[in-house]
Amino acid sequence: MGTTQLESVQEPKYWHLKTVLSEALDSDFAVGEILPNERDLAARFGVARATLRQALEQLELEGRLQRRRGVGTTVAPPRVGVAVSTAQHEWTGGVTGEAWQPVDCASEAAPSAVAAMLGTGTEPVHVVRRIRDTHGQAVAAELLYVPASSVPDLSAIDAPSGTVRARAVLRELHRLGLEGQDRSVELGSARADDAKELDRLPGAPVLVVTTRYFAAGGTAAVSIATYRADTCRLTFGDSGALEISHDEQQERQAS
Amino acid sequence: MGTTQLESVQEPKYWHLKTVLSEALDSDFAVGEILPNERDLAARFGVARATLRQALEQLELEGRLQRRRGVGTTVAPPRVGVAVSTAQHEWTGGVTGEAWQPVDCASEAAPSAVAAMLGTGTEPVHVVRRIRDTHGQAVAAELLYVPASSVPDLSAIDAPSGTVRARAVLRELHRLGLEGQDRSVELGSARADDAKELDRLPGAPVLVVTTRYFAAGGTAAVSIATYRADTCRLTFGDSGALEISHDEQQERQAS
DNA sequence: GAGTGGTCTAGACCACCAG
DNA sequence: TGGTGGTCTAGACCACTCG
Fold first, then answer.
1. Strand D-proximal residues, CB under 7 Å?
2. Which of B221, B226, B235 is CA-nearest to residue B205?
3. Residue B38 above 90 pLDDT?
4. What is the extent of the structural domain holding B141?
5. Could you give the number of structural domains in chain B?
6. The HTH gntR-type domain covers which part of the protein (chains A, B) (predicted)?
7. Could you tell me the distance in Å between the CA of residue A21 and the C1' of nucleotide C12?
8. A211 shares a domain with A175
């Protein structure tokens, strides 16, 4: 008595839901528009709220939605392209639109992995904290590790910490004339302090960019920058940014 | 009557759990070791299974754990560095260890976003499917879009589809002498077909690398490659890969 | 068939934001 | 103060792997 099998592919509910919502976003909603709340949406689709949330989480991960506690769920704008390749690193945090803003500076022992890249031991290094803004939005938080030996001429007159000190370290580093860099990108989750700077909850997905700066045959500095994965598209390469993200995702999802 | 506030930071349980588990992984487990099952772990920590799973999901996202249905949860090895910067793209899918393996080739209309980058209309393009292996593990799946106009000398003798056709398109593309490339990286979730190739569930987090290849002043091809975000660290840059990931994460988490 | 992780439910309470 | 998303619970069943 073979049961007729019914070719039920058994697609998970949240997956199907995500597809439906994605199509609805394309056709029925404008960027910035507020969606119905989770309880209503769940009821409307006849699923538990947890299941609905699973679909929303995926869409947020893909940069389609933005959720804020106490406010609601809105349709996110397309991801912004953020250049990370430029050789002319904005060490001074100038007045350009895509600048890093120095926030603070401390002298601490580097994490062991960073120390290994720097070739230093456990002696303290300068740790410069910077925030990157784009269009008035914080998109990245960075910790820049600079061994004292890289910036020997750092004036003792400058403040021992704070923004002034940070700018001084960056200035000295800039004068070194860095020769090249080595970079890697991986997925991570935001530490509590980074999450706060980026206006996200702890654990939010981030793209961790680790950069090693060379000068005079050695590693002069190491940067660990965390970019908001929901809103950012990291761009590399010689020419300008490529300007497509949102549409592409729609296409990819559709197939 | 000010309530004494008690400085209860109200750290979520799953966040604390994640920290505890992370430390346990560092001290008490070896790579590849199997953890107790989720029901036991949840009982041991006195939380619901769903809460325990939230912590495990984060750790998997960070590449610390690997979970397989019907098998169990194991301690993941450090992420592998995968180079994506090399100019000498392995068009032919050679016999080197880090090669792309051509799988298939079809002639289809490109998604609109891809068509926009190519500057083509709706006419069909060659779509080459490739898989990238590292250490015997599939780490990336790619769709390479090549307009027919880019490879005019493509022999009609070659098969109209399949691996043979794929290799023929790659060979012709290689002969063009590509001049440069433009690249972007963003977070995405695996489509069903990519997930299957990568041995992951649909929706698994992936790093989507979009590359635009130039030749003779135009865009000769566009590649959309999806890398497993859990196991891969994408490396760019002039020199070799930087060899740190796992330890670094431990350090970052600890602070 | 036994055991694993994956999905789903129907509740509850909390932290946060705005009017 | 009311409404939102964020966290958490205690169950249930399913899909998958393996011996």
1. A 10, 35, 37-40, 49-50, 53, 67-73, 201, 203; B 12-15, 46-51, 54, 68-71
2. B226
3. yes
4. 80-238
5. 2
6. 11-78
7. 27
8. yes
